[in-house]
Write a structure and sequence with these properties.
alpha/beta; Rossmann fold; 11 helices; globular; seven-stranded mixed sheet; 2 domains; about 25% helix; about 400 residues; Quinone Oxidoreductase, Chain A, domain 1; six-stranded parallel sheet
Length: about 400
């Protein structure tokens, strides 16, 4: 079984970080902690375990960040002993090929997508009883026992031939969804959860900062869940702007526009400028979904949100950041985090993000297949990664196709 994985090997990570500026290809060399290797065909380690064969898998920015050794060993998750090896690829649709005798949710031939597997172990996958409060609620990605180290871990991932997983780490694919739609449920669910972390009020003014794949899923999430909201999108590339407009954006702020001036014009806010180019809005957007997550975009987002508004941090950086947080107290702007998918409250009832996302797909309120712009076999994995990283290629979602 072939797989691409990254080990948490701090000395190698630091060496690769030091060499990357002069040797970008070092991430594919033997010096890197990333590997494309045959990991064998491990036996199922327990009665509730499952083996799957992959059909399609998307290339996600978080996978690329791990592969490119962008993670700083000083960030909080790096302190956790449970995170030692990361099998890349979680936007994956697969077929069950083997089940343990205790599996009740799946049988051979079922299509599945990955649920909590990439976020790490949790109470259910470790069979810890009683579960922690977050697992009890269905938010397994927030598990308080994630680094307990109980029981086995799965082998393989979406960037490869297949993988093994505890049955609770998988989610059934309805028969009416295509493989392409099924593969896109995970990234679409990220956008849906981000919007539900701070839904806009009716006719609220929303900014989506960044129009990569996650920004585009957030645009769709806002349009589906808050259809009367006014959506502005900051897009760097023409193909991203075109897709954002197609998916429901009302206003595109292009790379040649000043975002502060555009924000003031859209929202009616007042723009002020102090010394050294220091700028701030009074008034601004009701909710900003920062789908980049850099120090600059977080700082800008907090300054472009209205007093009492919110910034939802959707994009992630695997590094500490220097950010001006003064708008959090000075304008009482809420800075809200969001992570993957879990249990939501929608229309007064609890619902898994995947179930809500699939319902919205069925209703035609979310688009999946049009976002997949490039497909590659696994053997061309380096070319696929370069295509995904170079937005000038016109890439939105690049996928490995194993069919």
């Amino acid at each position: 079984m072939r797989a691409i994985y990254v080990d948490k090997d701090i000395p190698r990570m630091l060496l690769v970080k030091a060499l990357k500026p002069v040797w970008p290809g070092v991430v594919y060399s033997r010096l890197s902690s990333a590997r494309f290797a045959d990991v064998g065909e491990p036996d199922l380690p327990g009665p509730r375990w499952v083996r799957v064969s992959n059909r399609m898998c998307g290339i996600c920015g978080s996978d690329l960040a791990l592969l490119q050794v962008e993670a700083d060993p000083k960030i909080a998750p790096a302190a956790l002993p449970g995170n030692q090896r990361f099998y890349l690829g979680h936007e994956v649709v697969s077929v069950v090929t083997e089940v343990g005798p205790g599996v009740t949710r799946f049988q051979v031939g079922d299509r599945v997508i990955m649920d909590g597997r990439f976020q790490g172990a949790n109470c259910l996958s470790q069979e810890i009883v009683p579960p922690c409060r977050h697992c009890e609620e269905g938010n397994y990605q927030l598990c308080e026992n994630a680094s307990a180290g109980v029981g086995p871990r799965g082998v393989g991932g979406g960037w490869g031939d297949g993988y093994t997983a505890h049955e609770t780490e998988l989610y059934p694919v309805p028969p009416d969804l295509s493989d392409e739609q099924a593969m896109m449920v995970e990234p679409l669910a990220v956008g849906v959860r981000a919007v539900l972390r701070r839904p806009p009020e009716p006719e609220g003014k929303v900014l989506v900062l960044g129009a990569g794949i996650i920004g585009l899923t957030v645009v769709q999430g806002v349009r589906a869940l808050a259809p009367d909201a006014h959506i502005s999108v900051i897009a760097r590339y023409p193909h991203q702007a075109e897709m954002a407009t197609r998916l429901g954006a009302d206003r595109i702020i292009g790379r040649n526009e000043d975002p502060y001036e555009a924000a003031a014009a859209i929202t009616g806010a007042k723009l002020y400028e102090g010394m050294f180019g220091n700028r701030m809005l009074l008034g601004g957007f009701d909710v900003i979904y920062d789908c980049v997550g850099s120090a600059k975009t977080t700082t800008d987002s907090l300054r472009m949100a209205r007093a009492g508004g919110a910034v939802v941090m959707v994009g992630i950086k695997f590094a500490p950041m220097k950010v001006d947080l003064t708008p959090v107290w000075y304008q009482e702007v809420d800075l809200v985090g969001t992570y993957a998918h879990g249990m939501e409250i929608w229309e007064g009832r609890p619902v898994h993000t995947y179930d809500l996302t699939i319902d919205l797909l069925r209703q035609g309120k979310l688009e999946a297949e049009a976002l997949i712009t490039h497909r590659f076999p696994l053997e061309r994995w380096e070319e696929a990664i370069r295509t995904a990283q170079d937005k000038r290629s016109g890439a939105i979602k690049v996928a490995f196709d194993y069919r």
